[in-house]
From TrEMBL:
Protein name: Uncharacterized protein
Pfam family of the protein (one): Fungal_trans_2
Domain of life assignment: Eukaryota
Alphabetical keyword list: Nucleus
Keyword Nucleus belongs to the record: yes
PANTHER family cross-referenced by the UniProt entry: TRANSCRIPTION FACTOR (ACR-2), PUTATIVE-RELATED-RELATED, TRANSCRIPTION FACTOR DOMAIN-CONTAINING PROTEIN
Length: 449
């Protein structure tokens, strides 16, 4: 744990204003709303002036800007803010990490949430202060420390994990995550955090953010707050569509009974419809508010996809390839969903590279699942726009479409839209994509057979 933060450079000449921790409490902002069923405290601010006027912490001008940024529209920091900001308000080291992360978010906004942030001087100053405070605490912390002290350090380190994720640093993210894991073991294990709802949610939040970026399986299960109050989503968008899909799946995987990906996809299908298209029914208002306000259901779905690990030693090569491609393609869909819900930055280079590698030598013969193959290729192509893999995905879309007798991109697109597609998620930059895919279709038609 003493290695936490040593990979980061230190700026000894820059000083940060010390905080009066007696002023840190969860009602420092104007307008704490009633708790929702899944979150104990709701932080809101009517405007920046009210925010600063009611913030009971001594801040300099820069720090006021960083806090105001957290609560500004489009700051990309709304998801699970009720949890992690509450943790940041309980400890000075955690608060320094919150300020640093806010500075990183300000930098990442210029990339539209698709690229990691650069290291600004402001971010480094506060991140260095957080690391110094954490390392000082780690020299004396023991299992006999009070629960409050242990939780405070875990919360501060969770801020460092998030910081490394925003910067896209695998080394720092892994280092800080391992440090957080050791502290949680010292606390008695992840279940011991269940009494601290905000901390428990924050731990899973920062872990899954990095796990998605690098496509690795999360260590911890999700806390109870992330599950549906009634155990299941409200209903599938179109039951007949899912019956047809399961029949197609069974026709390909005749001897395989593993439907884990299919089960997750069915829930994503239903929850996407509820969040992006359907009106809110009275009976399901609480559940839908939960999803629409926070995108909390997306956390559950991403967690399930990341933990779904297939064994290539057990499955036949073709079966493994199809199931893994389905998992990766659905993760790319969830990347877009997460950005829609305000999570940023969310990068997908690792997932795209894995998807291209697993499909590189694929012959396109997916039987009745070929339409899902096409959908997966579209997920890859849209996410790879302006990147090194864009041409490969576009070429594959055109060739697979024509393999199944589709010679117009509109017909290909119509098939994809029937599977899982929402305008609010994909259509913002679809015009440019449309031009490029049209050119690929024309090129394939003109090429000699």
């Amino acid at each position: 744990m003493k290695e936490i933060g040593k990979s980061r450079r230190k700026h000894k000449d820059n000083k940060v204003v010390e905080l009066d921790l007696s002023l840190l409490h969860p009602r420092g902002l104007h307008g704490v709303t009633p708790a929702s069923w899944w979150m104990g405290v709701r932080w809101t601010a009517t405007d920046d002036l009210n925010l600063i006027a009611n913030f009971n912490v001594k801040l300099n001008a820069l720090e006021k800007d960083l806090i105001a940024n957290i609560f500004s529209n489009g700051s990309q920091q709304q998801p699970l803010r009720d949890a992690w900001f509450s943790i940041g308000m309980t400890d000075e080291a955690a608060f320094m990490a919150v300020l640093s992360n806010s500075a990183l978010h300000m930098d990442s906004r210029q990339y539209g949430g698709t690229k990691v942030a650069g290291e600004t001087t402001t971010a480094v100053i506060y991140q260095t202060a957080a690391v110094a405070l954490v390392n000082e605490r780690l020299t004396t912390i023991t299992q006999q420390d009070s629960i409050e002290n242990l939780d405070a350090v875990i919360g501060a380190v969770s801020g460092l994990v998030c910081n490394a994720d925003i910067r896209g640093s695998w080394l720092d993210w892994h280092t800080h995550l391992q440090g957080m894991n050791q502290l949680i073991k010292l606390r008695g294990g992840i279940d011991k955090l269940s009494g601290n709802t905000n901390l428990r949610l924050t731990v899973s939040w920062v872990e899954i953010q990095g796990a998605l970026m690098f496509d690795i399986s999360p260590i911890y299960p999700l806390p109870d707050q992330c599950y549906y109050p009634n155990g299941k989503p409200l209903g599938v968008r179109d039951a007949q569509d899912m019956v047809s899909m399961r029949a197609a799946w069974k026709s390909v995987f005749v001897r395989e009974n593993d439907t884990r990906w299919l089960d997750i996809f069915e829930e994503i299908n239903a929850l996407s419809h509820q969040s992006f298209e359907s009106p809110i029914p009275i009976a399901g208002r609480i559940q839908l508010d939960h999803g629409r306000e926070t995108g909390a259901w997306s956390l559950l779905m991403i967690h399930g996809l990341l933990r779904l690990r297939l064994d290539p030693q057990i499955l036949l090569p073709k079966y493994f390839r199809i199931q893994e491609a389905c998992r990766l393609g659905t993760l790319l869909y969830m990347v877009r969903v997460w950005r829609y819900f305000g999570v940023a930055p969310v990068t997908s280079e690792a997932i795209l590279a894995k998807l291209q590698a697993i499909l590189y030598n694929d012959d396109g013969d997916w039987g009745r699942l070929w339409t899902f193959y096409l959908w997966i290729l579209y997920m890859g192509a849209i996410e790879a726009q302006d990147g090194p893999l864009e041409t490969w995905f576009l070429d594959r879309i055109a060739s697979v479409s024509m393999l199944y007798g589709i010679e117009k991109w509109e017909e290909s697109m119509a098939i994809v839209r029937k599977i899982l597609w929402y305008a609010c998620i994909f259509d913002a930059n679809h015009a440019t994509f449309q031009e490029r895919i049209e050119l690929r279709f024309k090129s394939c038609l003109q090429s000699p057979s």
